[in-house]
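Reply to dn_fold:

You asked what the input looked like. This is it:
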Amino acid sequence: MNVNAFLRRIFQSTRNLWRVGQTVLGIIFRHPITGASIIPILPDGRIVLIKRRDDGCWALPGGMVDWGEDIPQTVYRELIEETGLELVKITRLVGVYSSPDRDPRIHSICIVVEAKVQGKMEIQDSLEVMEIQAFLPDYLPPGKMSHDHTRQLQDYLNGLTTLA
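and this is what came back:
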């Protein structure tokens, strides 16, 4: 194992420990955790989705807001961490989703944005992501997506801005 791979593994372990800590704090203090989902749009109009390792479902990239971050910083970080893609511009607020049962792990509030992205799709966090693929809007993968991402994507495709 080279030094970069070793450091990446330590970083991922520390990050996973932080996520567990955030979840525990959310449970203890009974307050929702804030996160962001991204609808990444490639220059050719395709939508990038990830296949999550934990549930095997397709999902929008995204994650929890880290301490000291704002939503644009979270979007930038999560895109790189999960897809290897670079944020060009956040173009639209799709919605805010806060139903207590939207995430099976915790009560979370998710801010969903559309973003123009560029670069090469490449899995960065293989512990979380098992596949990345770009889809034309009319040819999205069938079936249930992770969490409430089916609704988020449908609201986006319908041109809605949702508060739910």
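Residues 66 and 74 are 7 Å apart (CA to CA).
Hope that clears it up.
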